Amino acid sequence: MPFTLISDCQPTETPEMDRVFRRKLWLSTQMIVLFTLTAALGRLTGLISVHWKTLTCLAGFSVLFFISWFSSYGFVRYWNCIMMRNHEVTEQPMVTDRTTSLILRESISFIER
Question: Does residue 89 fall inside a structural domain?
Answer without folding.
Answer: no
